[in-house]
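WARN retry 2 of 3 for item q-0093 after timeout on previous attempt; input resubmitted unchanged.
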Amino acid sequence: MHAGNFEKRKEGNNFRKKGVVDKRSLKCEHCDKSGHDKSTCFKLHGVPDWYKELGDKKRKSNAGHRAYAIQEGTELKEVNHTGESAGMNFTFSGVEYLNKDAWIIDSGATSHMCSDSKAFHTLNVSASVLSIFLPDGSTKQVTQSGFVNLFGKIKLVDTLYVSSFRSNLIFVHKTCATSNIRFTFLSSHCILQDHLTKTVVAVAKQSRHLYILDKDSFNPSFINQFLSSHFSFVSQVVGSDLSLWHQKLGHPSHKVLAHVPGLKSKDKTNEIFTICPLAKQHRLSFPRSVSSTLKPFELIHIDIWGLIIKPQCQTVIIFLPLSMITAVLLGHT
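OK item q-0093 returned
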C-alpha cells in the first residue's frame, strides 16, 4: 500500500479509504509491524474515529451472535457464528444473599443453570465442553447437564451444572415450552400456573428487582394467602351472596365451593344446594300413572327436575326450572 490509498480529513483523525490493497504485503517503517504502512500507522497519526466505530459494531455483533444449543439427550453442542466460544448473557447482580436452594426467574438467560449437584435428579457428563461467559467477564466450562425436579412441582430438563456459579437460574421460555408453565409477572410477585388446569403451582417473591423461587413459594398455605390478599374481591362474597356465586359457578356443591380461596359461608346448611343434584337426574320415560284429575294443574306428579327429554302428551315438552321457587312451563316442540 502506498500513501495515496488513505488521505487525512481536515477535521479529526479520520482516514478515508480509496482503494483495496493486500495488507499482507505491507510493513510499517515507523512501528515495524505488518499489515499497514507508515501513512496509515495509528501510532504515528492516532486512532481514527471510523476505526473506533467499527470496533464498537463488531463487539455488538459478536455479543448478539453468542449462543448455544443442547442436543437431544445430554450432549451439548457449541453454536458459534463468530468463531468464538458459545456465550450466555445474564442481567442480574448482587445475588450473594440468596439461599442455596433459591432459584432466580430469568427471562434473559438461554438455559437453566444450577450450582448444586444434589439438586439434580439425573446428572450426566456432556459429550463436548460448553464455554459460558459470565457478567464479570470470566469464562466457565460446563461439562455436565441433567434433569432437575424443582421441589417436586416443576421439571427442568437440560439444566447446566455450574458449580462455581453463585445462583440457580430458571430459563422462562424453556420452562413454558417443556414444563407447560405460564408465568404472570406482577410488581411484587410472579405467579406460576399450569397452562392446562390453570392451577397455581408456585408464587415467587420479588427481592432486589429479582423474582426468587424457594421452598416457601410452593407452600399451599402461602399460595392461598397470597391469592386471598391480592384478589380480595373473592373474600368479600360471604353470607347471602354465596347463593349468587353458587349460580355463577355452575351450581356446584357446598364442598366444591369450600375450595374457592376466600369464599367462606357462615351458614353451613345446604339449603340452596338441595335442589341442584336432583335437577341433574332424569330418565327417558315414566311408568303408566293410575291417577287422574279434572282440572289443569290440579295434580302433577313430579319425580324429575329440569328438562324432560322425551316428549309427552302429543309432542309437548315439559320444562321445570326449579330453584328456591317452583315453576312449571309447558311448550310445544
